[in-house]
Amino acid sequence: MSDSKTAAPAITDNRAEILRPRDAAQVAFAVTRAAREGRSLTVRSGGHGYWKPEPGGLTIDLRELDGIDVGEPSAQGRIVRIGAGALWGEVARALAPHGLGISSGDTASVGVAGLVVGGGIGVLVRDRGLAIDQLRAVQLVTADGRLLEVSEHEHGDLFWAIRGGGGNFGVVTRLDFEARELAGVVAGEFSTDGDQGEFLRAVRETLADAPHALTATYMDVPAMDPSAPAGARLGVVWAGTDQADAAVALAPLTALDGVRGSLAPQAYADVLLDMPHDPDDPGAPVLSVTGLYGQLDDALIDRLVAVRRAHPASAIFLRSLGGAFGEVAEEATAFPGRSATWFAMAIVFDLPGMLDDDTRTRVRTELAEIAEGRLAAYSNFTNPASITSTADFHTAPAWGRLRELKAQWDPQNLFTRNHNIAPGS
């Protein structure tokens, strides 16, 4: 490991100084430097993200911390140590020869740490829970430059906060997961030319009593790029290689007139979407809403479908929850809504000249109606411009505790370029 006084390689552009540390000691050096110089601090974990370098600020880009170390079986399970800057597609490919898997997100090019600190709702979420539910420890650089080993047994309060607190408590440099056996998955896509609302109701009923091995994702999107072709479709992933069992679980849906699609065995890494991302690209401006919902009721389905119909440049996204996701106690982590059975998101693109003021006002009203009844918003999919309060990502008790811990571990709010939790008084 490099000396902690050794600076990370730097790249200077017209917006910020970007540091690419090679180890945790260099991360600590960069954090203390940002605090000492009073500069804004942005942290990238190698993949996608909303926060871009600020003029005069300092950015820590963790892409060099991309190691993946698969441990031997032990009484603590099979522990895999992963650098914060690794990408989830790389992790899936590295674990496959060992017959192991970790539930991540749904995109190969997302960074490990960035996804995890927000929770991590992936395509194995009903079988294995959130990404944070498989996390056993992290290495963390705090606001005062300390390098800590954090777990349920060491600094347990920090470990609770990191799992859902969104990067407010330090820079995660390494993550230790308990990986479980995963020989492969059975995956497929289904669609219908019929009414999408009725199709979603059928999907809801099929998932209501489905085995935990089955997770479903519904998308209805406009034409964007080859990784996300236009149209409405249901993607399903069965955790395991038994295609017959997967087909039985889906039979109530696939037996309906007009529903078409197929299943096939796949490697888990091949299921993750390939969506290359330029971290310097701010992306298209959007109006959006996210939510964790106790039930996917008819009113919510109708509102989601209505937004998609009313606005050609819009998208809706749903993922089934329940199963292992709901078996974790609400108070065990900072992540909210463990009683939720569905996650939903609606996006309306707001490119220049696309929406007039009246339409923009109407869209905001429609999205607010979709938010009604949700248990909480989901930070990982939420554009900062679309939220009114970071408290929306947490239960009231968790929000109070998070603010107290923020005051303890980051009283000057150095880690502010995130869905920020202000220190409590």
Q: Descriptors for this entry?
A:
alpha+beta; six-stranded antiparallel sheet; 26% helix; globular
What does this structure look like?
The chain has about 425 residues and is an alpha+beta fold. About 25% of the residues lie in helices and about 25% in strands. The protein is built from eleven helices and 17 strands. A seven-stranded antiparallel sheet has the order 14-11-13-12-16-17-15. The protein starts with 9 loop residues before the first strand and ends in a 16-residue tail after the last helix. The mean pLDDT is about 90.
Question: End-to-end distance, in Å?
Answer: 38 Å
> What is the number of E strands?
17
Mean pLDDT: 91
Helix and strand string, N-terminal first? EEHEEEEHEHHEEHEEHEEHEHEHEEHH
Count of separate DSSP helical elements: 11
Strand order of the largest sheet: 14-11-13-12-16-17-15
The largest sheet is:
7 strands, antiparallel
Question: What's the shape?
Answer: globular
Assembly annotation: single chain
Share of β-strand residues = 15-25%
Write the layout of secondary structure elements.
Elements: E1 10-12, E2 16-19, H1 24-37, E3 41-44, E4 57-61, E5 68-70, E6 78-83, H2 88-95, E7 100-101, H3 112-117, H4 125-128, E8 135-141, E9 147-151, H5 156-162, E10 171-181, E11 185-192, H6 196-208, E12 214-221, E13 231-239, H7 243-254, E14 259-266, H8 268-271, E15 286-293, H9 298-310, E16 314-320, E17 342-349, H10 357-371, H11 396-409
Parallel strand pairs: 2-4, 3-4
Antiparallel strand pairs: 1-2, 5-6, 6-10, 7-10, 8-9, 8-10, 11-13, 11-14, 12-13, 12-16, 15-17, 16-17
Helix pairs in contact: 6-7, 6-9, 9-10
